[in-house]
Design a protein that fits this description.
The protein is mainly alpha-helical and 537 residues long. It folds into 2 domains: 14-249, Arp2/3 complex 21 kDa subunit ARPC3 (Orthogonal Bundle); 254-472, Orthogonal Bundle (Hypothetical protein af1432), CATH 1.10.3210. It has helices at 28-45, 51-75, 83-114, 128-138, 141-155, 164-178, 187-209, 216-247, 252-258, 264-272, 274-291, 298-307, 335-355, 360-368, 376-384, 405-420, 428-444, 455-472, 501-524, and strands at 14-17, 22-24. Helix 7 packs antiparallel against helix 8 and helix 11 crosses helix 16. The longest helix is centred in the first third of the chain and has 32 residues, at 83-114. The protein is elongated and about 90 Å long. The N and C termini lie far apart (140 Å).
């Protein structure tokens, strides 16, 4: 069969055509942006504006950035689709180089002004590690390693000290590593202390193998190296909140702050909707248990689970977990009105989240945690009402469907935890069956089509959910001397003895004889209660 050539796309212009294929500009805009960043970096690192000097530096920085881009493309392919994050990474690279040049210029002039020589030692106070620390906090440690490597090599384009790139790389690496487990903003200051120690020992090593340890140059260099950590931690502490706000990024520090149950929004949820509060805590336990197994951020998963149902605070009594007694407010509403109330809690949750300035990833998950699922209870209730076939779309959430693995994980945990409450006898086998049915139903309904969950991920989710719920819903032994399930004793009913057929005949005859005697007495005036009136006169 003859192979048909591919047609040209009207939307995307091809780079070139061949008889059998068309090569498209898939990464051209991002590559072009990468080269622009490289050109700006070349200008920042140049001592002058000569064409030859700038061109040479551009070739080096451009090559380093292309290597960085290819590593990101291989290690985190989805990252290249997020233009905002790619822009942030490029700006952090330029900021690091520009900040280093600015501090070098300032401290050199400062040293000359107060008579500290040699002024060239100011290079050891350049805050290169600040960029690596922010990349580690915003992105991950792997990205921070490559970032540290490229920025350190780039400093060799203007620093005359041959061993300085080693000094810069070690300090940046230690800075990035020190904030991996950062749980609060004050930990950044501790990271700055580690950078100071790393810079100090690295500089001493450089001075030793260059035989300059006991010179005038070494004294001021050591002072600058020891104080560099203070400058670096101050820069990171000041700039990180601004970057989080401008670029809508979320760091682990922000997520850990939101995990505090004393947050105003969580305290309000606990008071107004205690059932929803407890449900959210259980969902948080479920998602965190499986998050690392499927490669998502456990902190983001748990925080999103805590806040996914905050919209129920506006009408808490219309949700079964907050109802007291056996009477439901939905009994007085039409099924369509009930469905509108349930749908509204998603929109209300997004509004409350924006009011409290929750991170964008958490708001996205609040909006997506029900996808376009069908409210089967009210849909079936509408069908049973006999008012015609109801429109299914009126009983579905408005979406969107989960766009990330974290959103899908919260959706599954939310549904499984809610369904587990209806189990009368929660044995491990029944819990496993329930988890399997709920997850399969959501999968078949197409709710996981737009996220990146694999079948292996779904299998891991089922296993972990079953394990956690089995532990939560387990039975306990009775306490001796206590009957917590005590019921009021009802008076015993006397058993009604049904006589045999012969006995029934004898009983009937006796009853008839008694009636005959009573009638005779009444006629003769000899009844017990009959009064004889004596004549008067």
């Amino acid at each position: 069969m003859e192979q048909q050539p591919l047609r040209k796309s009207r939307r995307i212009k091809p780079v070139f055509n061949t008889p059998i294929k068309v090569v498209l500009r898939e990464h051209s805009p991002r590559l072009f942006f990468t080269l622009i960043i490289g050109f700006i970096a070349a200008v920042l690192t140049a001592e002058g504006f000569g064409l030859s000097e700038v061109a040479g530096r551009f070739l080096i920085t451009g090559l380093l950035l292309l290597i960085f881009y290819r590593d990101i493309l291989r290690y985190k392919p989805d990252f290249t689709k997020k233009t905002r994050m790619l822009l942030l990474l490029g700006l952090l690279f330029l900021f690091t180089l520009f900040g280093a040049r600015l501090f070098q210029y300032f401290f050199q002039n400062f040293s000359e002004g107060i008579g500290i020589y040699p002024p060239e030692a100011a290079i050891y106070c350049m805050p290169l590690a600040a960029g690596a620390m922010m990349v580690a906090l915003i992105f991950d440690f792997h990205t921070a390693i490559i970032f540290s490597f490229i920025t350190s090599l780039s400093t060799g384009l203007w620093v005359s000290e041959p061993a300085y790139p080693i000094y810069a790389f070690v300090g940046s690496l230690v800075g990035a590593f020190s904030v991996i487990k950062c749980t609060k903003r004050t930990d950044i200051l501790r990271g700055g202390l580690y950078v100071s120690l790393a810079n100090l020992f690295t500089l001493i090593g450089i001075l030793l193998f260059t035989n300059r340890l006991f010179t005038e140059y070494s004294t001021i260099s050591i002072v600058y190296a020891a104080s560099s950590g203070i400058v670096i931690s101050s820069i990171v502490s000041l700039l990180l909140p601004a970057i989080e706000s401008i670029f809508k990024v979320t760091t682990d520090i922000s997520l850990l702050e939101l995990l505090d149950l004393n947050q105003p929004i969580m305290k309000n949820l606990m008071i107004t909707a205690p059932g929803t509060y407890h449900h959210s805590i259980i969902v948080g336990n479920l998602v965190e248990a499986v998050a690392e197994d499927i490669g998502v951020n456990p902190l983001l998963a748990r925080v999103s689970a805590y806040y996914h149902d905050i919209g129920k605070m506006r009408m808490p009594d219309y949700f079964v977990e907050n109802q007291r007694g056996t009477v439901s407010k939905h009994d007085r509403l039409t099924p369509h009105m009930s469905s509108m109330i349930l749908i509204a809690h998603v929109k209300d949750g997004v509004e409350i989240a924006r009011e409290y300035k929750l991170p964008e990833p958490v708001i996205d998950i609040i909006e997506q945690h029900h996808g376009t699922c069908l409210m089967t209870y009210f849909y079936q209730k509408a069908k049973d009402a006999g008012n015609g076939e109801p429109a299914e779309e009126d009983y579905r959430y408005h979406g969107p469907k989960p766009q990330s693995r974290v959103a899908a994980l919260v959706m599954l945990a939310d549904a499984v935890e809610a369904a587990s409450r209806v189990l009368n006898d929660p044995t491990p086998a029944r819990i496993e069956s329930l988890v399997d049915k709920i997850v399969n139903h959501i999968f078949i309904d197409g709710q996981l089509e737009e996220c990146e969950l694999t079948l292996k991920d779904i299998s891991n989710i089922k296993k972990k959910f079953t394990y956690i719920l089995t532990g939560i819903l387990h039975r306990r032994i009775d306490y001796p001397g206590f009957d917590f399930n005590e019921k009021k004793e009802k008076p015993e009913k006397k058993e009604k003895v049904i006589p045999l057929k012969a006995d029934r005949r004898r009983h009937k005859k006796t009853h008839e004889d008694r009636n005959t005697k009573q009638t005779t007495k009444d006629k003769n005036g000899s009844g017990r209660d009959h009064k004889i009136s004596r004549p008067t006169g």
